[in-house]
Specification:
alpha/beta, 310 residues, single chain, 8-stranded mixed sheet, 31% helix
């Protein structure tokens, strides 16, 4: 299914009920409890999925079985009292639950906020293609990126409650890899997960004019080269109007990552921003996927042309 500008869910208000789910890796209990306290301080009522604190009986990198993790997500999404669903951490496992979800039932539940990042990219893609919804590539509640990073937490809070206040996304370290200005629909997320989705029957087709958003963590430069080359050969960038690159934490020397991206992407003839401040980094910015945006390398910013939420 071709991605396009998607439907925007409604913003949150004090008193709303939100649900917490763990579609991927196991959840640190102390960070989960701290994240819950933060949500309550925002005036939200939080419901924790039945299996969020589970561990898979054999695979210790998963939070519970595939069926149980999927059931938590589906139950939360289909609950009419829930205004937003937050993924509490990434790791690995979101791709494993895609075939356990009843997308027809979830579509009937109507639009609401879905937020998470990293491995949750697999679900962002599915929510775009199956439900036609804008989603938030955002810090996750049972991680230090939310609990211990006030700037990241505040940017997410403002996106959820006052989305018109965070339509300009930038960072002091941002710069131009290729100069220029472009408009398009934001798409993408975690590079290795995007590459891993290629070839699936329900893999999304990028928008006709898109702003490709990519970041990753703990991947050596040669592995980043492999993922980007795979996307290039699959035509994933063919209709990109611009590219926004986020953080590359623990991916080796940044100059080596810069060299890989410049070598592979620099000849595409589109503006490319470097280190825009989303992904696995301090003061992580919350990025809406599926919205119209303008990338301006001279101004060193990505401008969301309409607030992410209504």
């Amino acid at each position: 299914m071709s991605m396009r500008e998607l439907r925007r869910p409604h913003r949150l208000h004090s008193g709303d009920t939100v649900a917490l789910v763990a579609p991927a890796g196991p959840v640190p209990e102390d960070l989960l409890d701290a994240g819950l306290e933060q949500l309550r301080s925002w005036g939200l009522h939080a419901r924790v999925g039945k299996h969020v604190r589970d561990r898979h009986p054999r695979l210790d990198y998963l939070a519970g079985t595939d069926a149980d993790r999927a059931a938590d997500l589906q139950d939360a999404w289909c609950d009419p009292d829930v205004a937003a669903v937050f993924c509490v951490r990434g790791g690995y496992g979101s791709m494993r639950i895609l075939d356990h979800l009843d997308w027809t039932e979830m579509a009937a539940a109507g639009p609401k906020i879905f937020a998470g990042s990293s491995d949750i990219t697999a679900l962002h893609d599915a929510f775009a293609t199956q439900l036609g919804l804008v989603t938030l590539f955002a810090p996750m509640l049972a991680t230090k990126a939310f609990v211990a990073d006030e700037a990241a937490r505040e940017h997410l809070r403002r996106t959820l409650f006052q989305p018109e206040s965070v339509t300009i996304l930038t960072r002091s370290s941002a710069g131009a890899l290729v100069r220029g200005r472009a408009r398009g629909i934001t798409y993408g997320g975690n590079l290795s997960i995007v590459a891993g989705s290629l070839g699936a029957s329900d893999a999304p087709t990028p928008p006709e004019r898109g702003i490709a958003m990519l970041e990753d963590v703990t991947e050596d430069p040669y592995r980043l080269d492999r993922f980007v080359t795979q996307l290039l050969r699959a035509g994933w960038f063919d209709h990109a109007a611009g590219i926004a690159l986020g953080s590359w934490t623990d991916c080796g020397p940044l100059e080596d990552v810069h060299a890989v991206m410049s070598d592979l992407l620099g000849s595409l003839g589109v503006p490319i921003m470097w280190e825009l401040g989303f992904g696995h980094c301090t003061a992580q910015r919350t990025i809406p996927l599926g919205v119209a945006a303008e990338l301006d390398t001279d101004a060193q910013r990505l401008s969301i042309l309409q607030p992410a939420l209504l």
